[in-house]
Amino acid sequence: MLFRWLSQWRKPQSLGARGEAAAARFLRRLGYKIIARSDRSKLGEIDIVAVDGRTVVFVEVKTRTTSDSAHPADAVDAVKQAKLTRLGLSYLRRHNLLECKARFDVVAITWPDDQRQPTIDHIQNAFEPTGDYQMFS
Questions:
Q1: Where are the beta strands (DSSP E) in 1-137?
Q2: Which residue has the higher pLDDT, 132 or 44?
Q3: Which residues of 94-117 are buried (b: 16+ CB within 10 A; e: fewer)?
Q4: Sign of the Cα pseudo-torsion (91, 42, 105, 28, in order)
Q5: Domain coordinates of the chain in residue numbers?
Q6: Domain 13-69+76-115+122-133, architecture per CATH
Q7: Which pTM does this prediction carry?
C-alpha cells in the first residue's frame, strides 16, 4: 500500500534517463563493469564510463522514441565526437589512467511510447578520437 502511494508521487524518469539505465543494464549483461554514470566535469558530461576487459570505454547513449527520421547514433556527429574526445581525455587525466587503452562506444536506443522494452543497438569503437587529441590509444 505504501509503495503504491509513493510510486504515484514519484516523478517519472525522462526518456534520456530511462535510456541510460537500459544501456547500463545492457552493458552489464555483456560483462562490462560500469565505473561511472553521468560523469560531469567543467567540459561536459560522459553518459557512461565502463571497463571492458582492460579497456576503458566511454559510452554515449542516444535515445529516441522513433527511428523515422534517422538512427539515434547519427546524432553523434563530428562536433559531438570532438567533445567526447576531450571529455574522455580529461577523465583519463583526472583518474591517472593515461596509460590505459580507451575507446568510444555508442548505444543507440529506440523506445516507442507503447513498448515496455527498447531496441538497443551497441556500436563498439564507434569513432576514433578526433581533433588535437588523436594521441589516444
A1: 33-41, 44-52, 55-64, 101-110, 119-127
A2: 44
A3: eeeeeeeebbbbbbbbbbeeeeee
A4: positive
A5: 13-69+76-115+122-133
A6: 3-Layer(aba) Sandwich (3.40)
A7: 0.84
